Inverse folding.
């Protein structure tokens, strides 16, 4: 079964940290670009970060550069997103996405940044 399962979301105070993880199964993970997207209430889904299949190259939205880091482990079929210095505007549902010839999405994990 083709599947992406996100975990690690939760409630955190401004300035705090969370680490999101995404576990992949049922497809050739090491051949896929892996992305994180997020969708805040009332807003469209937006790109957060991307990592190439080998992990050699990463890209970030300007809003998260220097605070978020995307990494992957092709042996474990996982992709992580440590998030530091979180801000209220980071509040959103975060989605893991795998892209190659196909386009696979997870169910999302809620991140809430609030005091």
């Amino acid at each position: 079964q083709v599947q992406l399962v996100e975990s690690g979301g939760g409630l955190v105070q401004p300035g705090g940290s969370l680490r999101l993880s995404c576990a992949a199964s049922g497809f050739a993970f090491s051949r896929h670009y892996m992305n994180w997207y997020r969708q805040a209430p009332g807003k469209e889904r937006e790109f957060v970060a991307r990592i190439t299949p080998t992990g050699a190259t990463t890209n970030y939205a300007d809003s998260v550069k220097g605070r978020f880091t995307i990494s992957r482990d092709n042996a474990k079929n996982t992709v992580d997103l440590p998030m530091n210095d979180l801000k209220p505007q980071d509040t959103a549902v975060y989605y893991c996405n795998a892209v190659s010839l196909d386009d696979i999405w997870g169910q999302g994990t809620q991140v809430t940044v609030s005091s």
